[in-house]
Amino acid sequence: MKDNILNEMHPLINERLGRFYNRDSDYKQALENETELFKELEKTLSKEQFEVVKNYQIAVCSTWGICEMIAYRQGMKDMAALIGIDNT
Distances in Å between the alpha carbon of 9 and those of 3, 16, 26, 50, 60? Predict the structure, then answer.
């Protein structure tokens, strides 16, 4: 399975994963907890401190998003190899 096929599938993968996340009660609970904590930080920190924390959170989420996509792609490549689809 070539990388360009996976790149073309990227938006579809993100949409599909989003639907699964939004149906998962554990995910919803974790997201609510994250939101409440973030609001508490906004109330507690100065504007400058909050901006640093917010930028840090954006960077961490971006990194995890990339890791998630790499793992998903590798899983697809591994599955293709297991069922004998050309994986070059």
Answer: 10, 11, 27, 36, 24
